[in-house]
Structures are given as C-alpha cells and as structure tokens.
Design goal:
With 162 residues, the chain is an alpha+beta fold. The chain has five helices and three strands; from the N terminus they run H-E-H-H-E-E-H-H. Helices cover 48% and strands 15% of the residues. The protein has a three-stranded antiparallel beta sheet.
Length: 162
C-alpha cells in the first residue's frame, strides 16, 4: 500500500524525492544485475487493498471497463458505485529469476524505503527522511544515491543463495 501522508510539507518533500529515488533504484538494480547470476524483468501490476475479495475485484474491474463506453450519466452512476468499493493502485514489480528460483520485488515499496524513515509496508503512516535534503531544502543527490545503493545491495544480499 502507498504510504499515508497527512502532512503537506511531507507531501511536498516526497514529491521531490520519489522520481529521483525511482530512477536511482532502477539504475542501482541494473548495476547489480550486470554482475549477478539473477535475471530481472519489470512488470506493471495492479495492487488491491488487503482483504479485497476476488468477487469485488471482478466487480470493480468490470465497472472500470464499463466506464470506457458509458454515457455521461452512466459514468456518474459508475463513479458513485466505485466510490464505495476498494480501488486498486498501479504497481511496478521486478521479477528476479535464477534457475528455478524466483523473487518478486515491489519497486514502489523499495522507493518508499528510500524516501521515508523506517518505512514498513504494514505501518503506512510515514515521516520523510530529511537527511536526503540539503540545508536549502533541495535533494541531496549524494545522500540519495548512498541510501539507494545500500538498500539495493541489501536486497541482493537477501536473495536465496546470495
């Protein structure tokens, strides 16, 4: 799940960090894959809130598809129905494979670990890692790179047989 940001300043800071963090994560993964026996492929995924039933997923998916060819009044009715249902959010995963082994990595989750202090997917309330900003409030590119490098290294060291 995406983190819950309730503070406007944290929201602004996360907007400054997320794109460069994502770029640094992907680049550091590439560097590790270049020297690793693991092969990686990237995949767009749909992530549903925990506890969403298969039946609800089918209903939401159908309603979203119905919106594409609906009249304006039908679109309004569909939106009202969707407002009461759990909605998925887009995700981006890295599938790492080596022989018979396979590991899926949520890249947004990894970016959240870079951008936020002590990020835990179970506890989605977050605080920004202010050490990733310089005295002027700009992104500290070297600190961002160092933290990203460390987290990606930990990821690869945690793989089976590493």
């Amino acid at each position: 799940m995406p983190p819950k940001i309730t503070n406007y300043t944290v929201w602004q800071q996360s907007e400054l960090l997320m794109q460069p963090a994502f770029i640094r994560v992907v680049d550091n993964i590439r560097k590790h894959l270049d020297i690793s026996s693991w092969k990686g492929t990237y995949h767009d995924v749909v992530i549903w809130p925990p506890g969403t039933t298969d039946e609800t997923k089918v209903v939401v998916t159908q309603l979203l598809q119905d919106m594409e060819n609906a009249t304006p009044q039908q679109v309004e009715d569909i939106r009202k129905n969707l407002a009461t249902l759990p909605m998925p959010h887009p995700g981006y995963h890295l599938r790492l494979q080596r022989q018979e082994q396979q590991v899926n990595v949520d890249l947004w989750d990894l970016c959240y670990q870079v951008c936020f202090l002590n990020y835990d997917a179970e506890n989605i309330s977050v605080d920004i890692d202010t050490s990733l900003f310089d005295d002027l409030g700009e992104v500290d590119w070297q600190d961002l790179e160092n933290k990203t490098k460390m987290l990606v290294k930990q990821l690869f060291e945690s793989l089976p047989g590493a």
